[in-house]
Design goal:
By secondary structure, this protein is of the alpha+beta class. The chain is about 20% helix and about 35% strand. It has 2 helices and 8 strands. A hairpin with a 4-residue loop joins β1 and β2. The mean pLDDT is about 75.
């Protein structure tokens, strides 16, 4: 992605400020916008990567998980469950704790990797 801003030092205040080329009228709203754009550009993330951070759910039409990876899924008739996708059988499988066996589930619309547990103090 092409960078639209650059950082420079404001010698009066001694702080870094973001600047952008263009015929823009300088105002506080514009300066805040440029600072936010520069901060975003500093992350190095693409718009798609940012969207994934905001909403980690992946449509099954977009892609499927690696075979037998445990993931969370969402479907029309239920909320998130831990499941795995079997690519050989093309089925989603869920563990039934009561019956101690896997069973297939249908109508999976979205899935996401299982997030890691936050560390204390993080």
């Amino acid at each position: 992605m092409e960078r639209l801003t650059e950082w420079m030092i404001d010698f009066e205040s001694g702080t870094a400020i973001a600047i952008a080329d263009g015929p823009y009228e300088i105002c506080s709203g514009y300066c805040k916008m440029i600072d936010r754009l520069a901060a975003y550009e500093d992350t190095g993330l693409t718009p798609e990567e940012v969207a994934r951070l905001v909403n980690p759910w992946i449509s099954v039409e977009e892609r499927l998980p690696e075979s037998d990876d445990n993931v969370l899924c969402g479907a029309e008739f239920y909320t998130a469950h831990e499941v795995h996708y079997n690519s050989e059988r093309k089925t989603w499988m869920c563990w039934d704790e009561l019956r101690q066996r896997h069973f297939p589930i249908d109508y999976v619309a979205y899935w996401m990797p299982i997030p890691s547990i936050p560390q204390k103090g993080a």
